[in-house]
Amino acid sequence: MVTLVVATTTDPASVGPASALLAMPGWHPGPLVQDMESFVNREVRLLKHDNSIVREDHLDRRWEEATGEFVDEVIFLSKHTAASNRPALTVHPIGVPHLREGEVPAAGGKPGWAAPPNPRIGPWLRLLKTIAESHNITPEFEVTLEATHHGPEINSPTMFVEIGSTEEYWKRQDAAQAIALLVWEGLGLGGGGAVGDWSRNSGQKKVLLGIGGGHYVPRHMDIILKDGVWVGHLLSGYSLPMEDHGQSKAQANAEGVGGTWRESIKVAFETTKAAFPGGEVLAHLDHKSFKSWQKNAVLGFLAELNIKIGKPGDFC
């Protein structure tokens, strides 16, 4: 089984960290896969292509078909954009589970789909924070999670690692070096133990499924920054479209609230559960982000699916 790291030459925040990573010891040329060059280092494969990072679907399957190697996980290197233009280093799972069939995703993926979240997301967020602090690029760069969003469509446990939020920062060599070190240390390429390997987890089995809040999921972040917390999908408010059909809001329940929020929660839960075999997925709600009728509906639906609610102390 191999780890597939994906970069695109069209994105400076992707090719910069990839180049810094390839400058580290142990790499040698790998196979050419559908005109995409690759590089090999132990059980890691770095694949470069020349297209949008969110548009090249099923790179895991395509790698397997071309090489016969099974892809255990995928890590994408990418730029991050934000209206604030604030410099940031971000980590997040991917998917657009809230979109209806027939809708066209703005940034790749398939309506109603989410990739299994890479179990490394929580541990790597904490490692990235440590690396950024030790290289003095914080507090200039914020280190943060993002909610589940965008493509490409893929079936393996996946995460995006990004540099934001403008071209000035996408090209920053210190940021590129921090991301390269994250991958290097996180995958154990330097000889140390890999970080965030769920298969070697013998202790904490509870996994956080974040529901509600803004795009940078601050209420969930407060928990995930604590050592030992595992994290699955993170559904912000925009991934939980809820429509009130005029019933008494005080009596609102799952059946009486329209929108695709149910489908979004169900897909996020199922793919998170698949990514953490043997784990117990607990929902963590950003209670203040919901109106009372919305929260009642969400709690009712979670009960229908037998998804337990976790308090902050349950995940540590």
TrEMBL record:
Protein name: D-aminoacyl-tRNA deacylase
Alphabetized InterPro entries for the sequence: Deacylase_DtdA_archaea, DtdA
Organism whose genome encodes this protein: Nyssa sinensis
Top-level taxon: Eukaryota
One GO biological process term: D-amino acid catabolic process
Source lineage: Eukaryota, Viridiplantae, Streptophyta, Embryophyta, Tracheophyta
SUPFAM superfamilies: AF0625-like
Keyword list, A-Z: Hydrolase, Metal-binding, Zinc
GO molecular function: D-aminoacyl-tRNA deacylase activity; metal ion binding
